[in-house]
Design brief:
This protein is α/β, with parallel strands linked by helices and 323 residues long. It folds into 2 domains: 183 residues, Rossmann fold; 114 residues, Rossmann fold (3-Layer(aba) Sandwich). It is built from 12 helices and 11 strands. The strands form 2 sheets. It has a 7-stranded mixed β-sheet with strand order 3-2-1-4-5-10-11, sandwiched between helices. Strands 7-8-6-9 form a 4-stranded parallel β-sheet, sandwiched between helices. Strand 10 and strand 11 form a beta hairpin. Helix 2 packs across helix 3, helix 5 crosses helix 6 and helix 6 runs parallel beside helix 12. It is elongated.
Amino acid sequence: MKKIGVYTSGGDAPGMNACVRAVVRTAIFNGLEVKGIKRGYEGMISNDIINLDRQSVANIIQRGGTFLKTARSQAFMTKEGRKTAYDNINKHGIDALICIGGNGSYTGAKKFYEEHGVPCIGLPGTIDNDLYGTDFTIGYDTAINTALDAIDKIRDTAHSHERVFIVEVMGRNSGFIALDVAIAGGAEGVLIPEDHGDWNKVLNHFNNQKRRKKSFSIIVVAEGDEQGGALILEKKLTSMYPDLKIRSTILGHVQRGGSPSARDRILASRLGSEAINALLEGQKLVTVGIVCDKVVYTSFEHAIEGKKSVSESLIKLAEILSI
């Protein structure tokens, strides 16, 4: 193995640049050449592939997003598209790939290996923290701190106007972001896909006369919760409690942006470097994660199919602290 390709795929996450930087510099340290594939799988198909060296990744560790860009590729979902991608990476002499992304990105890499035998190491880059095989994903810590900062500001307005605010956070079909920011932000309720009794807990909060004496409340909801998003919940609660002043806020993609936190920079750097080590060890189709502060390898199959759930103890803690 002499030359590797690195790309970011799927949704962007703070820390992706730090991860690419670590991949490039660790590869060069070990005598490997590095190619950057722009816009993920779409860039493979369009042959948007560039040389990366030490200087290419200078002054990017603090930047959010991904300087390699990212895109979702419909063409790569076809056999013809994957063949074109394979032909292009062959032209550049790329022997192996490092994919920074989520489940969809892993699925594409697995299919690519099965059809064309290109070794690939996956790195967990998503703010949702829902990938199996690692305690934390790149971008998660920054996202929860961004959401927490917004909730702290919303709390000021909620207190001033004596309102109930429903705050919707990202997370796709998982409640990691919502649960963490609810606890850290002192929310009076949290709705997440993993807790099927959360709606009753919220209703108990509003039905409890002692709790109703509070002049304001913050309810955090994960975008994938079965009860619906913030706007739907606002209508539900307004019809049930017409005496309350209820407002909703959707934080949206602001959670994906911004300079990565120190924790995300360190995690991304560590994972990026370990991806090169995995390739040098002869690994071909694994993801690299950190579990209990130790590096672990997880097969793509298990990383894609494995289920990662929020802590039951944290769900209970959120309920206790909301009284």
